[in-house]
């Protein structure tokens, strides 16, 4: 057991603040790191101490392992929380941190490494009977052998890069004639993007749902799951809306998925917070895809329905404590929805829209949580992810959580930049989302820029038509009056122009 007195958060923005808030509640001093672009950022102001790492680009600041470790030594920091992104799933970083005698608030470097490779992850869990998509267990070396495997699985198949993530390096193959070409492309893409050309094949599940399970493990071999998050509403592998629980997961399915997730965690002696990702087909069969060995962006929906502060548990586990609860202590309370507010223009192909937050007023009230890292008047830097905020609502039913989200979106006032708020409201009102009948193709299936135009009900449209006729008739009357006055008895004056 080793008490943490001072925690450095190797991150920026909302997640850095989110982590420091919990640390402060636990009586732990906080250290922020920042780049020159983030000098005046809220996470820097919030921290007890702050260290500048370098210029704006993350490879000259937030990714500098040596500088971060040196800052810990200079300030007598005893633990590092990596947040998400940046160095959070870098096994070498986790290793270097612990070699420097600093606690890494996260899993072991070995677990990060195994789960960082999709093939290694599949191999690690293969003996536990966890459902996986039919496919190859090893990297493809022989094209003819791969082709015959593909034929026996049945097309379409998906080629995936073992080192890939977030959809990078994936290729769908519809029929055998395309196989060889796509395979070569996938290999060279994987080689240049990840420095690892290993690829494998899986049966392609055409329109899956993405459902993931939050897990927590300690150093004593205890692992629990904190139910599922539904993350199917995404755009080009970027999640847009997440919720917990999922509208389609029954109690029995939840239990089976939860148990499978715990097995995945145990297969790599996992400790800390992690997420086991599954895809779910139309028949609600679920298949293990990969494990994310970090705190995820969408962790708040799990916190809202369980009442567990995941960062607090991460810190306690890192100090060596046993989990303070067992599986049977965890219950789902109500429903939570999260939207990601990005500085992107949904009317313009979601291009990042940078600039100054001219107005920035957060929604408030019962069941509303906003996790953000900006303030009114600040510029959104171009160097990092364009996410401005996460807006989370919680209520006792899914219906009420969605209605509360619409209310909160309408209260949110952001000017100076375009945001995805209106797009999220479109999702929140869409019949497919409301009914729960959607998958990862939701956005491409239903969204066009016109979806954002003002929506009118039939009653409102009749009212508009009636009032248009009225205005037209009254204008005609005015025009007749003017014409009658224009009998040249009077010169055209300003008074008459005003009538027009
Ligand atoms: C799949 C799949 C269909 N079949 N694997 C995309 C990201 C990576 N985590 C795994 N992904 C997928 N793997 C098989 N065998 C479809 C996807 C996929 C997807 C998965 C989760 C969330 C969004 C997605 C969007 C498109 C494709």
TrEMBL record:
Organism domain of life: Bacteria
Gene Ontology MF: a single term: biotin carboxylase activity
SUPFAM superfamilies, per database record: Glutathione synthetase ATP-binding domain-like, PreATP-grasp domain, Rudiment single hybrid motif
Keywords: ATP-binding, Biotin, Ligase, Magnesium, Nucleotide-binding
Gene expressing this chain: accC
Protein's UniProt keywords contain ATP-binding: yes
Name by which UniProt lists this protein: Acetyl-CoA carboxylase biotin carboxylase subunit
Listed EC numbers: 6.3.4.14
PROSITE patterns found in the cross-reference section: ATP_GRASP (PS50975), BC (PS50979), CPSASE_1 (PS00866), CPSASE_2 (PS00867)
Ranges of residues in domain Biotin carboxylation: 3-448
Organism field: Belliella kenyensis
Ranges of residues in domain ATP-grasp: 122-319
């Amino acid at each position: 057991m080793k008490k943490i007195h001072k925690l450095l958060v190797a991150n920026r923005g909302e997640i850095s603040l989110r982590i420091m808030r919990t640390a402060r509640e636990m009586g732990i001093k906080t250290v922020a790191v920042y780049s020159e672009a983030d000098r005046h950022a809220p996470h820097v102001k919030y921290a007890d101490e702050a260290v500048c790492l370098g210029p704006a680009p993350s490879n000259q600041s937030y990714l500098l392992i040596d500088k971060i470790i040196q800052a810990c030594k200079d300030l007598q920091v005893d633990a590092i929380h990596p947040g998400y992104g940046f160095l959070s799933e870098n096994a070498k970083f986790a290793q270097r941190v612990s070699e420097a005698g600093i606690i890494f608030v996260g899993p072991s470097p070995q677990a990060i490494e195994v789960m960082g490779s999709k093939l290694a992850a599949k191999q690690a869990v293969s003996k536990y009977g966890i459902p996986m998509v039919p496919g190859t267990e090893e990297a493809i070396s022989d094209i003819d052998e791969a082709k015959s495997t593909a034929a026996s699985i049945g097309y379409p198949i998906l080629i995936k890069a073992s080192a890939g993530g977030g959809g990078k390096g994936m290729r769908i193959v519809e029929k055998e004639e395309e196989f060889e070409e796509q395979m070569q492309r996938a290999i060279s893409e994987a080689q240049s993007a990840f420095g690892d050309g290993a690829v494998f094949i899986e049966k392609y599940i055409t329109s899956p749902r993405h459902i993931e399970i939050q897990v927590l493990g300690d150093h004593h071999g205890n692992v629990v799951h904190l139910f599922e998050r539904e993350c199917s509403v995404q755009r080009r592998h970027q999640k847009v809306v997440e919720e917990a629980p999922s509208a389609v997961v029954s109690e029995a399915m939840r239990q089976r998925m939860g148990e499978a997730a715990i097995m995945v965690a145990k297969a790599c002696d996992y400790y800390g917070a992690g997420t086991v990702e599954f895809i779910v087909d139309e028949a609600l069969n679920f298949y293990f895809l990969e494990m994310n060995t970090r705190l995820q962006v969408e962790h708040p929906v799990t916190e809202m329905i369980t009442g567990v502060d995941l960062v607090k548990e991460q810190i306690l586990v890192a100090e060596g404590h046993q989990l303070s609860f067992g599986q049977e202590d965890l219950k789902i309370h109500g429903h939570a929805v999260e939207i990601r507010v990005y500085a992107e223009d949904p009317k313009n192909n979601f291009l990042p829209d940078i600039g100054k937050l001219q107005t920035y007023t957060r929604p408030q009230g019962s069941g509303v949580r906003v996790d953000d890292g900006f303030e009114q008047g600040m510029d959104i830097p171009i160097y990092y992810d364009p996410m401005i905020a996460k807006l989370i609502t919680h209520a006792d039913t899914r219906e009420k959580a969605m209605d509360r989200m619409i209310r909160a979106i309408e209260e949110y006032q952001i000017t100076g930049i375009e945001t995805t708020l209106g797009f999220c409201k479109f999702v929140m009102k869409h019949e497919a989302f409301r009914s729960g009948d959607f998958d990862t193709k939701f956005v491409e299936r239903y969204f066009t820029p016109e979806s954002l135009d003002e929506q009118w009900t039939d009653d409102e449209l009749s009212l508009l038509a009636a009032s248009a006729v009225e205005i037209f008739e009254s204008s005609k009357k005015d025009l007749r009056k003017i014409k009658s006055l224009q009998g040249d008895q009077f010169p055209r004056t300003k008074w008459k122009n005003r009538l027009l």
